[in-house]
Amino acid sequence: MTADEVLAPPHPLDDPVDIDSSVVRFVIDTTFDDLPEHVVLVAKSALIDTVAAVFAGLSSELIDPLLGYLTSIDATGNRPIIGTAIRTGPDKAALVNATLGHALDLDDTVSAMPGHPSSVVLAALFACPEVEQASGSDLLTAYVVGFEVATKVGMALGGLHYRRGWHTTGTAGIFGATAAVGKLLRLGPDAMHSAFGIASSMAAGLRANFGTMAKPMHSGWAASAGLTAALLAASGFTGSTSALTGDGGFLNVYGDLDTQPEVLLGLGSPFTFEQPGVALKRYPCCYAVHRAIHAIGQLRGDHVLDAATVTRISAVVPPHSLDPLPYARPKTGLEGKFSMQYVLAVGLLDGDYGLRAFSDDAVTRQAITELIELTDVREDPAMSPDDPEGNGASAGTRGAVEVRVQFTDGTIASCRVVHPPGSPASPLDRADLRAKLLSCADHGGFPTERAEAVLHVLEHLDEQASTAHLLSLLAGEA
Asked: What's the whole-model pTM score?
């Protein structure tokens, strides 16, 4: 494939309005009764997981500049910043809460997208001025609809969109936020078309910002912009009726040779929550390193891993698996989240990938710096024989990852992993989710008793007559 071919946009469809109208009809027509039981169960698990990620984000290095920003612009309003006594305007609440949800890279991921839809969609819904008037089943339906639109737009874009440097969480995620809020507001067809049209001019997010605070801000921007697009449309602001798939529309401009607008005709058939599923993270870092983390954990269980007896530790991964992992020698905790070399060194030294494993102090330890020099990371088409060029699944799911440890006596131990814990093939159970939420609440300073109450409400969300109690629980004290 030549450079010109890679950069060539897809051809516009003969009748793009049909696909755009199909998306609008899906958003408007889908009811709670249309959701399969399994979809509701997985959606509630994903909601618990997302709230956990926001709790953890309350103690991240992002919280001070985010709240400082709100103070600097005197952003007043009545929408809560989760876990604080702060109230602000809807767009700012969506921005801050979604950014906190992605702050530690602990929120969910859909590899087929590829991206992190839930922090975007849920933050937009929680910030919507009408959310307290909705029932729990209304909120769940809007969340599932938004999640479905975000993930299917990402799938329609194709893998080359991400390969070119776009961050799909920001570019496709905005349409999930728009759809979810539009559903909650009960927008009609014309207004929903306009909302998507407005959103299409605000989609953004670049992988160049991975390893910086701007990366989680992609989630915040998508949530804020998507909410704004829906609220503008509800107020009569207009946008194109073919902004998703028309000539010069989103998929035409942001897409590539592998873009397939027809994917959007399959919304809900099946739901993404059913196939290919959602991964709920066990480790607070880029999903592209989770299989390596699990592999070295397995090796620790079978062998004594000691820097004094190890001469080399390596990871062999499928092609393009290192695209989102640019930091061979990270200098900050944020960079460490996107470093295969760092997680290998941590596996050898500590074996602990908890919420404090990706702090600046942890990354800059002398012992870690020395161990990183023992690491070897390379891509090999043999690790993904069905996709040797890495054009299919995402960096976290294509093929397999193999970690090898070489000892001073010349022996080599290895472990190959296809599905890490938390993946759709190896999902977290209720006990895992409860432990994650309470651990994240403790880490973020959110009261345990209140976190337990939040968990109970989310587990029974479809039985709640109103979301007001949930929002009051989440709006903790300063």
From this structure: 0.93
